[in-house]
Specification:
Length: 324
């Protein structure tokens, strides 16, 4: 295998592209060096090829030691190798406090979350035959994650040193409740994680582990990051780019169009989110995609309900939506 290339994106800041089996096949992590030690932003999955690439990069930078590991959010491609690099005698793990309670149920003690998700998809209209498979799709991901206890739980707005750079933690919930971006005012660098990607629209889903209104959270975070006017956005997937205002406009109008479409689909008769998702995206073969489509549809329905455009009714058996 060709060794993953280390490219310097700012003075003493190196981007490393690690292999993953989804999205566009790569996740970007960043190494900050002060000449003695390295700080790492995101760490890829707990998989041999990915770990090897990080070890080679450390060798290239002339240090075996990682001082800080900061994680943008706990999805496996960003957090998976946390337990390899952070812990007693290893790096200190920095993570937003809203991510911390998601880790154990998602990657260690899965049974409770699996049954919670199963109930969630059932009340949202998924047929029983699909519900079990859909709620089990989490299990495979726990294989590529080694968890670690955080040393620092972030609230957002902290200033932390990474290599020779001072970065501000920007809490940007939506894709995940405690998703963070890191912003360096001096150089105008925004390390955006999955919050602002150049090609993809990150999945914004309502589910048992999400915030209660993730789409509004997400759109608000987009607006705040655009206001920072970064000179360069360094995303976790895809290539760095400069036009943050244009990309934020694009992502915002994508969601606005989807809100309009969904409002169109939700008629006067009550519908389940599953029926809405099927009408919007058509039947999906891939179960992982089915679950994402349901959760993404739900995030938009919830935003419409919060705005008073849609009426949401709930019983222990079902959640239904209709036009206000
Ligand atoms: Zn993610």
């Amino acid at each position: 295998m060709r060794p993953a290339a280390l490219s310097e994106v700012a003075e003493g800041v190196f981007e490393l592209r690690l292999p993953i089996p989804f999205e566009d096949g790569l996740v970007n992590v960043f190494l900050f060096t002060d000449g003695k030690e390295v700080d790492l932003l995101d760490c890829g999955m707990n998989a041999e090829e990915s770990l090897d690439a990080i070890h080679r990069a450390l060798q290239q930078l002339g240090t075996p030691r990682i001082r800080r590991l900061v994680v943008t959010h706990i999805h496996p491609d960003h957090y998976g190798a946390a337990g390899v690099f952070a812990g007693p005698g290893l790096a200190d793990l920095y993570i937003h406090r809203l991510e911390v309670p998601l880790v154990h149920p998602r990657y260690v003690e899965l049974e409770h979350l699996v049954s919670e998700v199963q109930h969630h998809v059932l009340v949202n209209g998924v047929p029983a035959s699909d519900a079990e498979v859909l709620s089990n799709s989490q299990r495979a991901l726990s294989q590529v994650v080694k968890t670690a206890e955080p040393s620092v739980q972030l609230d957002g707005a902290e200033l932390i040193e990474m290599g020779r750079h001072s970065l501000r933690i920007e809490w940007t919930p939506g894709h995940s409740p405690g998703h963070i971006c890191l912003y360096e005012a001096a150089g105008g660098l925004l390390f955006a994680g999955d919050h602002i990607l150049p090609e993809l629209s990150p999945n914004i889903g309502l589910h048992p582990q999400s915030t209660p209104d993730p789409l509004h959270d997400y759109l608000d975070g987009l607006r705040r990051m655009a206001e920072r006017k970064p000179a360069l956005v360094l995303p976790a997937h895809g290539r760095p780019f400069a036009d943050v205002a244009g990309r934020v406009d694009g992502l915002t109008s994508h969601h606005q169009r989807r809100l309009d479409q969904i409002l169109e689909i939700v008629g006067r008769d009550e519908k389940s989110a599953w029926e809405v998702a099927l009408e919007l995206w058509g039947p999906r073969e891939n179960l992982y995609e089915k679950r994402l489509a349901l959760q993404e549809g739900l995030a938009h329905l919830q935003a419409l309900a919060v705005e008073g455009l849609v009426v949401k009714t709930v019983t222990p058996e079902s959640v239904r939506w209709r036009r206000a």
